[in-house]
């Protein structure tokens, strides 16, 4: 810490005053001791430890003390002055810290207390910086949450309004009997019905997304075989894959992969990944699901050899309402919540999900712990 000129003058003045006070104390002690020795020689004479010092005190002035005693007194005075000035210096340090804290409290959270401090004051300054950083981070997180809520409302409003407008429009045509034939009215009803199903899918996904995003969401843990679950998922999607000219292949260990988790939610993870591969893997012919068990985890990859996505799209895949296909065609239209739901479910199981493009394949990797803290379903 750099002292101001005014503070330096105060320290110098305090050093002079302290030295003067010490000298006066020395003089007073010397005079009192001289008076005692002179007035009561028989009392002090009985103590052999004083030796000839009593005679020396009786016959000399303060400034006539022996060099050894004089040096001793100077050292004591120096220590006292240093102790006094150090205390005053620490007070100035605290004043500087308090002044800069007031500046930070006014909203200047990027400001750091200047100067180098040692000892306990240095630890206090470091703790202040950590506290300010954590406060700024908490404020940023709160701001991101608020922004996230606004984006959620905006996206939901947009995605619901589009099919709702169509439903109202087609039902309005029927209500006003603006159709030329019964078959045309049936088409209007069918279109309104499809739009209503889109709305329901969005609402269902939104409800599930908000549910799994909560860290307090309860999970129904049971022990199950991950290999068997993967094989069953492949069977469930086999017919849909054949319709789109795709083949689903699985590769799992010969021995069961026994683990614990909420099977209903884990099934949803792979359901979303397989649906994503079938919807957006244009031109692909193969979807592979591979499972590998390590000591504490199971790693499952879902990959397809269809059209790959650019790197910037891969980085945003798990953001809610993100659709890599800008056109949003009726064939591949989705809510944009599937991968975000999958990520939240995996994180609830203390796992991790990632996506990458590797040698022309789009690869999703899910890593889940074999054991968790959940209890078996009873």
UniProtKB/TrEMBL annotation:
Residue span, HAMP domain: 94-140
Pfam families listed in its UniProt record: HATPase_c, HisKA
Compartment(s): Cell membrane
Keyword Hydrolase: no
Keywords: ATP-binding, Cell membrane, Kinase, Membrane, Nucleotide-binding, Phosphoprotein, Transferase, Transmembrane, Transmembrane helix, Two-component regulatory system
Domain of life: Bacteria
Keyword set includes Mitochondrion: no
Entries under PROSITE patterns matching the protein: HAMP, HIS_KIN
Leading EC class: transferase
Transmembrane region(s): 12-37, 62-83
Catalytic reaction(s) noted: ATP + protein L-histidine = ADP + protein N-phospho-L-histidine
Record-linked PANTHER family: SENSOR HISTIDINE KINASE CPXA
Annotated protein name in UniProt: histidine kinase
Species annotation: Alkalibacterium thalassium
């Amino acid at each position: 810490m750099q002292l101001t000129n005014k503070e330096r003058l105060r320290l110098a003045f305090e050093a002079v005053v302290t030295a003067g006070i010490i000298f006066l104390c020395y003089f007073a002690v010397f005079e009192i001791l001289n008076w005692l020795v002179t007035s009561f020689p028989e009392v002090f004479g009985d103590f052999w430890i004083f030796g000839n010092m009593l005679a020396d005190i009786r016959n000399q002035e303060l400034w006539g003390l022996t060099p050894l005693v004089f040096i001793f007194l100077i050292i004591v005075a120096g220590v006292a002055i240093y102790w006094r000035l150090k205390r005053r210096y620490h007070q100035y340090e605290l004043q500087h810290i308090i002044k800069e804290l007031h500046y930070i409290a006014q909203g200047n959270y990027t400001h750091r207390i200047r100067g180098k401090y040692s000892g306990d004051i240095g630890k206090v300054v470091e703790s202040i910086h950590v506290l300010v950083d954590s406060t700024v981070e908490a404020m940023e997180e709160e701001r991101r949450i608020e922004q996230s809520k606004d984006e959620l409302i905006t996206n939901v409003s947009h995605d619901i309004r589009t099919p709702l407008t169509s439903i109202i429009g087609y039902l309005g045509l029927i209500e006003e009997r603006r159709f030329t034939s019964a078959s045309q009215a049936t088409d209007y009803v069918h279109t309104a019905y499809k739009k209503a199903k889109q709305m329901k899918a969005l609402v269902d996904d939104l409800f599930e997304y908000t549910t799994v995003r909560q860290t307090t969401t309860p999970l129904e843990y049971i022990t199950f075989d991950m290999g068997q679950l993967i094989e069953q998922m492949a069977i469930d999607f086999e017919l849909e894959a054949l319709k789109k000219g795709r083949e689903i292949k699985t590769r799992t260990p010969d021995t069961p992969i026994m683990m614990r988790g909420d099977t209903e939610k884990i099934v949803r993870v792979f359901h979303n990944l397989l649906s994503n591969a079938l919807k957006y893997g244009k031109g692909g012919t193969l979807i592979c699901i591979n499972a590998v068990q390590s000591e504490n985890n199971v790693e499952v990859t879902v990959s397809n050899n269809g059209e790959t996505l650019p790197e910037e799209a891969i980085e945003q895949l798990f953001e809610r309402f993100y659709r890599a296909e800008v056109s949003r065609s009726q064939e591949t239209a989705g809510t944009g919540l599937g991968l975000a739901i999958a990520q939240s479910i995996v994180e609830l199981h203390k796992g991790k999900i990632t996506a990458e493009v590797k040698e022309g394949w789009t690869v999703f990797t899910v890593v889940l712990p074999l054991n968790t803290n959940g209890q078996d379903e009873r």
